[in-house]
Structure formats: structure tokens, C-alpha cells
């Protein structure tokens, strides 16, 4: 009787190129947030970050990295001081949040092949999980940094709370980069092998091993092309010098992050329905 | 058997497939790379090919039906299941689904081999839109049915293919959606588990559920299905009464109904 007036719970029709209905997509994505949390948690557990030595490694690894890079700076410059070390650790730790999002994101979609082939879900959950994992690994390093800062006697100031908006911008940028690169890797699988060179180049182009003030004005002009530059510069200004960030850097950083996030999401969302046949 | 469906009566349409066509572009290389793309550009060869997986398929599945889908490898059986489950969008046509589909096709479980079976079941279920409570409520039943014992907490890379499909089938059979799609999961596992999963399928047959079973195990399909769809090269060749359709399919394959061909492969 009611068969004719029964409404289907799902209708699948051909899609035209472009975005899916965004509000519906967001609702489904939000309803699956437990997956993102649970996936990140089990990935971290898989790498033994739930054990004591695993967590110790989370702290030891960035410390060793900063020590190695500090050695490099000392050798190249011939001299160094504690302020430079504080700058190095602050920016290096944040740089690793972004770079870990990239390295985690690149395999996010291709690694989820089995799930993508057999389950209908918003594919963007996979690169988002990669950023959540990078964020979980970043959080302990904040405390390490604050400890180093205290030991070396760098004064604290209220302006340091500017770190929160800077971190938010860094997270938006990380999301944008992870989403973009996870999608590119579906079509060009060798991107993953180029990635170490890419992150290394970005590291040297960013004010991590040096302060932005030591750059020549000519170089500084080009740095507007580096999305990480204003973020790391503001981060150092806020956390090392305890000053408010420059409005212009914050705006450039925000613009870069939002543009990369929107562009990456657009590419991803308009392509994701094709992933199942591309894997 | 308790049912999660709400007041769906027999002989109502569960899935309606109208004029379904599926064409997709995929790369010729198994691993598409920039290198391969540059090479094919230099030689002027194509780097992608277009695959016509399904062509103008019309298919209605009603509640109470147990539909077996048969056909040679590459006939488009799995593609059709993925379209019905909403994993791949159709190129042409319209698919209407009335009720909850097991969007978790059997092999969705175990996407991360380094995690335990337990974690994989949880993650697969969460990705498919179940809540954590729903999964945890059923977890005991899944673990019991799969008979994996302590192995449920071992990483899935240590599983044999039989253990793997046992877990996959257990998840699919325990979730109890209105429309259950079982893709090739019946033909794996040892004789004892095969028997057990066959019995579970029989239990799941009810007037308010539609079952779609993709399998090469003709004897099994003759036993449990009340309808068979035969696909060949993306086209629905025949649809109807199990014995007649399977006979026609086997004649087509020019395989005599010997014991060997009727056995589960």
C-alpha cells in the first residue's frame, strides 16, 4: 500500500563535478567525530605513545632535534646564546606540528584504502585525523619549551597569550596542507618520496635556524611567499620576546592558512567520490 | 530475531536501481606517479583508461527477498554493491534505498593491519556511522561468533585469511541492518565456519529484511536464495528463480554441473 508514497532514505544519483552539499556533508562529518578521536588514539597507541617510554620519546625526540640544530647554528655562526636556543626550540616545535601533519597526511587516504573501498563515509576524516595525531604529539613539547624557557630565565609576559591565535592559524594551515597533499598522493604516489625534501626546504626558508631580523630586506620581501614564515615569526616574537605579534604578519599568516585550507578542501571534496576507483 | 527496522512490511521495495550505468576513469599504472605521467606524456600514450563497469542495470530488491548475485570475475558485481552502499556514485541512473544499508561491506573491517581486531571493528563501525555504544553492545556477540578467542586483541596482520574473513562476516552479520550486503564472504573460512555462516544467513532471512549475497558458491546460493541476478560484463543478463538462473549461467559457462563446479570455490 504505502510503497508508492514511501520515501527513500537514501538516493544516489550521478554527481556533477564540484562540491557535495556542504551542510549535509558537515553534518555527517560531525556525527563521525568519534572516529577521528578514536582513530588518532589508536594510531598513537600503535606507536606506543601510551606507554611511559613512548611518552618520554615524544619529549626526547624534539629535544634531541633542537640540540642537533643548535649545534649546527653554533658551528656556522661561531657563537650563540640562550635566547637563540629558546627561539630555536619554540619555532622548531611548531614547525614539526606542521611538518608532521604533512607527513601523516600524505598517506592518509591511500593508507585507508580498505576502508574507502568498503565503507561510505566523508573521506576528509582521514587527513583530519592525521592533523589530530600531529597535534597530540605537539602538545607535550609546549610544556618542554616552557620548562626550557623558565630554566634559561627568559621573563614571562601576558602578551604570550597571543600564542593561542597563532597556534590556531598554524592548525588551519596544517589542516589545509594535510588535506591537499593526501588528495594529491592519490593521483601521484611518488609525492610521498619528495616530501622529505619539501619539508627540509621549507625548514631552511623559515625563521627557525635564524631570526627573521637577521635576513636581508631583499630576502625578507620574498618570504611573503612562504606560508610558514609569518606564523613562525609571530610565534617566536610572542613566546621568546614576549611581545604582541605584528598585525601585518598575523594577517598574512591568516590569509595563507585560510586560502590553503579552502583550496585544499575544495580540491579534496570535489574529488573524493572518485577515490574508491582510484585506489 | 529482534529487528531494528521500523514497520517495514514484506513485498515493499528495499532497493530500487533504475538505469544504472557506471563508467569510471582509472590509471593504467597500478601506482600512478609523476614519473609514469611524464613518461606517458613523452611517449604520447594515455595514462588513464575508462572502464564501463555497469550498463543500464534495472533491479528491484524487495523486503523478504534473498537475492544472490552471480557472474564471472569482473562482471560488475562488487561495483554494483558499492553503488548501492553509496561508496561509488553512479554515472547514470538513480538508486533509491529504503532503509538502513550495511554500509560496512564485509572487508571494510581490518583497514589498519597493525591494529588489533577489536580496534578495527570499532573503527570500521564508527566510520560507517555507528555510535560507540552500538558497537560495544554488539562486540561480545561479534567476538563470540567469529570464534577468534584471544586473537581478537592481536594485530590483524597476524591473522590468516580465514580468520580475517571470519571477523569480517561476524561484523556484517551482527549489525543487522534492514538491507544486508554480503560480498564474497561466504566462500572463505573452514567447513565448520562456512556451515555456521550459512546458518546465520538463514536466520537473518525475514520479511522485514533484504539480503543481497554476492558469491561464486552456487550450491549455497541455490539453498538460501529465493532470487538470483546474473550479471555479465556490466549487463543484467537474467533475473529470476534460483535453479533456472544458475542453470542458465552454468550452461553459459559451459560447465557441466559436476560435483567440482557445484562445490563452493
Automatic annotation (TrEMBL), chain A:
Q: Which organism is it from?
A: freshwater metagenome
Recorded topology in the membrane = Multi-pass membrane protein
Q: Which InterPro entries does its entry note?
A: ABC2_TM, ABC2_TM_bact-type
Please state where this protein is localized: Cell inner membrane
Give the record's GO biological process terms. Answer: lipopolysaccharide transport
Q: Which Pfam families match?
A: ABC2_membrane
Ranges that cross the membrane: 56-76, 85-104, 124-148, 160-188, 194-212, 250-269
Tell me yes or no: is Transmembrane helix among this UniProt entry's keywords.
Answer: yes
Residues annotated as domain ABC transmembrane type-2: 53-271
The yes or no answer to whether the keyword Transport is present is yes
Which Gene Ontology molecular function entries are recorded, alphabetically?
ABC-type transporter activity
What are the protein's UniProt keywords?
Cell inner membrane, Cell membrane, Membrane, Transmembrane, Transmembrane helix, Transport
Q: What is this protein called?
A: Unannotated protein
GO CC terms of this entry:
plasma membrane
TrEMBL record, chain B:
Instruction: Tell me a GO cellular component.
Output: membrane
Please list the GO terms describing molecular function: ABC-type transporter activity; ATP binding; ATP hydrolysis activity
Protein family membership:
Belongs to the ABC transporter superfamily.
Question: What is the name of this protein?
Answer: Unannotated protein
Please name the SUPFAM superfamilies in this protein's record.
P-loop containing nucleoside triphosphate hydrolases (SSF52540)
Q: Which organism is the protein's source? A: freshwater metagenome
**SMART domains reported for this sequence:** AAA
Q: Which PANTHER family match?
A: TEICHOIC ACIDS EXPORT ATP-BINDING PROTEIN TAGH
- Species classification: unclassified sequences, metagenomes, ecological metagenomes
Tell me where in this chain the ABC transporter domain is found.
36-258
Q: Which UniProt keywords apply?
A: ATP-binding, Nucleotide-binding, Transport
State the CDD domains in the record: ABC_KpsT_Wzt
The record ties this protein, via Pfam families, to:
ABC_tran (PF00005)
Q: Matching PROSITE patterns, A to Z?
A: ABC_TRANSPORTER_2
Amino acid at each position: 500500500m504505502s510503497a508508492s508514497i514511501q520515501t527513500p532514505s537514501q538516493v544516489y544519483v550521478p554527481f556533477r563535478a564540484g562540491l557535495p552539499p556542504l551542510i549535509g556533508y558537515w553534518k555527517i562529518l560531525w556525527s563521525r567525530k568519534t572516529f577521528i578521536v578514536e582513530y588518532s588514539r589508536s594510531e598513537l597507541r600503535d606507536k606506543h605513545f601510551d606507554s611511559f617510554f613512548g611518552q618520554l620519546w615524544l619529549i626526547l625526540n624534539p629535544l634531541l632535534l633542537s640540540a642537533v640544530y643548535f649545534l649546527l647554528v653554533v658551528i656556522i655562526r661561531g657563537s650563540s646564546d640562550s635566547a637563540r636556543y629558546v627561539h630555536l626550540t619554540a619555532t622548531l616545535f611548531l614547525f614539526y606540528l606542521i611538518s608532521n601533519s604533512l607527513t601523516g597526511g600524505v598517506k592518509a587516504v591511500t593508507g585507508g584504502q580498505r576502508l574507502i573501498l568498503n565503507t561510505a563515509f566523508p573521506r576528509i576524516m582521514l587527513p583530519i585525523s592525521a592533523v589530530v595525531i600531529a597535534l597530540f604529539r605537539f602538545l607535550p613539547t609546549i610544556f618542554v619549551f616552557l620548562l626550557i624557557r623558565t630554566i634559561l630565565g627568559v621573563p614571562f609576559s601576558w602578551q604570550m597569550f597571543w600564542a593561542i591565535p597563532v597556534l590556531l592559524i598554524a592548525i588551519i594551515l596544517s589542516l589545509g596542507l594535510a588535506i591537499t597533499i593526501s588528495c594529491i598522493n592519490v593521483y601521484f604516489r611518488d609525492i610521498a618520496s619528495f616530501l622529505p625534501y619539501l619539508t627540509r626546504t621549507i625548514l631552511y626558508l623559515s625563521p627557525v635556524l635564524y631570526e627573521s631580523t637577521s635576513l636581508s630586506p631583499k630576502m625578507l620581501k620574498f618570504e611573503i611567499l612562504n606560508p610558514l614564515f609569518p606564523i613562525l615569526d609571530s610565534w617566536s616574537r610572542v613566546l621568546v620576546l614576549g611581545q604582541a605579534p605584528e598585525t601585518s604578519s598575523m594577517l598574512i599568516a591568516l590569509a595563507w592558512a585560510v586560502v590553503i585550507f579552502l583550496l585544499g578542501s575544495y580540491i579534496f571534496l570535489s574529488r573524493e567520490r572518485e577515490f574508491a576507483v582510484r585506489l | 530475531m529482534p529487528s531494528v527496522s521500523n514497520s517495514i512490511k514484506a513485498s515493499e521495495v528495499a532497493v530500487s536501481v533504475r538505469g544504472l550505468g557506471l563508467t569510471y576513469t582509472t590509471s593504467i599504472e597500478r601506482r600512478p606517479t609523476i614519473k609514469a605521467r611524464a613518461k606517458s606524456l613523452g611517449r604520447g600514450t594515455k595514462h588513464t583508461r575508462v572502464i564501463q563497469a555497469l550498463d543500464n542495470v534495472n533491479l528491484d530488491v524487495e523486503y523478504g527477498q534473498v537475492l544472490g548475485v552471480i557472474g564471472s570475475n569482473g562482471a560488475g558485481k562488487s561495483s554494483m554493491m558499492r553503488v548501492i552502499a553509496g561508496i561509488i556514485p553512479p554515472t547514470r541512473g538513480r538508486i533509491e534505498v529504503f532503509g538502513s544499508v550495511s554500509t560496512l561491506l564485509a572487508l571494510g573491517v581490518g583497514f589498519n593491519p597493525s591494529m588489533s581486531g577489536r580496534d578495527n571493528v570499532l573503527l570500521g563501525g564508527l566510520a560507517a556511522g555507528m555510535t560507540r555504544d552500538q558497537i560495544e553492545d554488539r562486540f561480545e556477540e561479534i567476538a563470540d561468533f567469529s570464534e577468534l578467542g584471544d586473537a581478537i586483541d592481536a594485530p590483524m596482520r597476524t591473522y590468516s585469511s580465514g580468520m580475517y574473513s571470519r571477523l569480517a562476516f561476524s561484523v556484517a552479520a551482527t549489525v543487522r541492518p534492514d538491507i544486508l550486503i554480503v560480498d564474497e564472504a561466504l566462500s572463505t573460512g573452514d567447513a565448520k565456519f562456512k556451515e555456521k555462516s550459512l546458518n546465520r544467513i538463514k536466520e537473518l532471512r525475514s520479511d522485514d529484511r533484504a539480503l543481497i549475497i554476492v558469491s561464486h558458491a552456487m550450491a549455497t546460493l541455490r539453498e538460501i536464495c529465493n532470487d538470483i541476478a546474473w550479471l555479465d560484463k556490466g549487463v543484467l543478463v537474467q533475473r529470476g528463480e534460483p535453479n533456472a538462473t544458475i542453470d542458465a549461467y552454468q550452461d553459459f559457462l559451459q560447465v557441466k554441473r559436476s560435483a567440482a563446479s557445484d562445490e563452493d570455490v
